[in-house]
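hi! just following up on the protien thing from before. the input was this:
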Amino acid sequence: MKSRDIAHHPTPAYLPKEYWAALAENSDSVDASGLAPVLHPNSPPWFNRSIDALQFRAVKRAIAAAALPQGARILDVGCGTGRWVRRYQELGFRATGVDATLGMLRVARGCGTVAPLAAGEAYRLPFPDAKFDFVSDITVIQHIPRSLQPRALGEMMRVIRTGGHLILMELIGGEGEHIFPREPRDWIEQTQSCGAGFVGWFGQEYLLLDRLFVRVAQTLIGRNGNSTSAAAISPGQSSQHSTMARGIYWRLRHVTVPISVWAEPLTDRFCPARFATHGVFIFRK
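and the predicted 3d structure came back as:
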């Protein structure tokens, strides 16, 4: 996130449509998959590819746990630039995407998405009851204000047929101006209150070594309190020193991220799921 002088530049109110429309319009992503607008817009492409690969591994694991048959009808809520819609089709499913931001849908078409796409908000889905066998929500509800999250979960359950499944991949910790996570038990209870039967959950994205490095870098920045250090994480700085600092930061993460990704299966096996940054939750209607 960009650093701000709180006294002179108060944080503006978070407006979801405007926020995501700006990302779709202003993203400098050059990758054909359109990862930057839906993952980490100010990060190097290699970093987004790493996170995307981890998420894809987790989604396939959830699909296997749900025993989803070939040809099943899948709705991807908050489809963004269409990466999951395209992948579901490649895996042999009949996929549909819905997103509240027309700019994201245009990028999705530009990235080669040929499946049906619809404009609509997660808490007002433009589909009839029981239309889909499976609904996926990959880091979407965490960006919806908490007051609207129960309505979004209820809408997802509404469009799933009896016996169908819902998977959620959402943050289970942290906070931000456009991030509204819940603890694992809270995600489960909120979804169960909408008529879902809980199947199970697992942790996603531990990246322990990389998270330790980022924590150390943030601590050093906080102690130094200067723009050169802050530029390592905040790309808004444009001086030569800040550009150099940011380059060093990402070169170091080019070491910590691959090691963390390599260790992820072992970490998942031995670490409690609550140590992950995200949870993947599987429900049945």
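Confidence is low (pLDDT under 50) at residues 1-11, 225-232.
The first strand starts at residue 73 and ends at 77.
cheers
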